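Re: the pair you flagged

First of the two:
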Amino acid sequence: MDHEHRHPDGCARRRFLAQITAAAAASGLGWKGLSAAESNTTSVTPLLPTIALGKHRVSRLVAGWNPIGGYSYLGPHTDRHMKEYFTTERTVEFLLDCERAGITAHQFSPAANTEEVLHRVRERGSKMQFLCLHSARADVKKMVDATQPIAMVHHGGVTDRLFAEGKKAEVHDYVKAVHDAGVLAGVSAHNPDCIKQIADEGWEVDLFMNCFYFLTRKHSSALPTLEIGYPFYADDPVAMTDVMRQVKQPCLGFKILASGRKCSSQQAVKEAFRFAFERIKPTDGVIVGMYPRFFDEIRANAQYTRELAQGAKAS
């Protein structure tokens, strides 16, 4: 999530808007805000730097799903705020606007309106490619038939739990089922050790999704505390990006903004993008959830990707 918090320095914010507008104009990006979603045309800007996922090429910035589903990691009020905003129609327009900004892929999770959203996006002429985050092995073929993704990726929280319980074979069976369904197979994890084990054992995995924060680690303390929710430790991104550089498969880093905790200013957001692209392989990308209710995060994030990932663009 890239929600820019309100800042008392309104002039600084206006300066930023002016700067990014100028940069966007210079690159042919344009600055149309949410009104751009009113057009049925979906390709008005150059593509972002791209990477290969199997036979497919996708932008190094992939639009995430958590804000769409109301998962803010910032508490129940923000969850509800996001979920109420992202109606089916707004979700469709959001994805079309991402495509206009040069973003060519979206990672989604199954929800009640998923099939309708994807159908309506495609009906509008979109060429957006979709990656499904999922964990029910028995439903893989059904989900592939219904949503036609280019990849199915085993859910990170479930991966971490199954590995911790000594049941990693269930994750491997999921990968095999996805390949049997005819699409790319991936595994997501928050725990870097899960990724390392899979790579060391040579699983037939086409891609990884890598959380920058080990949110599922277990904690122990001699002092009783209230539940603190998901902990975001500052050094976690270094540990995960070390692993991302070691594995041969393309990786998609997510939570690069620490679920809004690195969004105190747009400069902080840009620095988080800079860190990510400097630390991951040229064949890797990032998944970022966006909430463009108050600020055009789509074009801001696309511009950061265009500026910071361009040097590593694959030919």
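Second of the two:
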Amino acid sequence: MRLDQKFSFRFIFFIILIPISFISGCGKIPNRNTAISDTAFYFDTAVTITLYGEGNKKYIAQAFKLCEYYENLFSKTIPSSDVSRINQTSISGIPAVVADDTFRLIQKSMEYAELSHGAFDITTGALSALWDFTGEHPEIPSESMISECLATVDYRSVLLNVNNKTVMLTNQGTILDLGGIAKGFIADKLKEYLQTQGVQNAIINLGGNILLLHDKPDGTPYNIGLQKPFGTGGETIATLQLADKSIVSSGIYERYFYENDTLYHHILDTATGYPVANDLLGVTIISDCSADGDALSTTCFTLGTEDGLALIESLPRTEAVFITSDYQLILSSGLKKTENIITLKE
């Protein structure tokens, strides 16, 4: 998925089911249990950061500055960004020197491309742009156009030079797209910053990607509502009780259109160029690292229930919830064994 496309669409899969008090002009709040929250707009989506304790309010502004910094590195539409300069290499053939964070993010992306045998691929920019799910009148691209774009999709065309920190695309016409992992990477960076400042409890929400810093100040876990696919009014299908975890979802119910009674969604199959066709409505990943969860949510959806679940079971400290087309929830073994982590709705 395109970075800008993924960020621009409402991607709220979770509802924080805790009372949150917002700072106002009504005086100081002495209680360290009080939540201080602010929202800003980056990556074409709402970014909300919630910290506990009035003394931590000053760290939110710096966290937003970090969001701006990473937007200027990873955005495909900002001409001076690292990603834009990398995309020019498919034409110029001249490697682009990039920031350390950009290089590390691409390295991690390549690891997931290898792990998934290309089911997760950051070279889908041209294909994603062809399927314009954000337009007023989306249409199914022609087979010839899809074939032309598919020829540019191959993660092996990304050439990395560790010594010089350069990136080059060796396949002409390839467009790099970090949308399937960038928000998770940025959430991890925000968490790292808050930890260095001594923040003990926080909720980082990047357009629906949730990252929890420890638990609530009273020592209890956060209650995270898992959105019901195609539900209305914030309807949830389950509740997760979690602390110090990342929660990321991918599903077909946020960006899609119908044509001839067939639903076409934004998660594209890198083998066919068309939306992934399987029995899933969505996948939620619970992990320590949000970048991992971001990449795995798309990967596991693309792989399908059986192969996606097998992948999750092979990874340490990683769990998943698969929602099938008949609204059945399939849980990874860790969620099945641990009581009180997930509560299913009747």
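DSSP finds ten helices and 17 strands in the chain.

-B.
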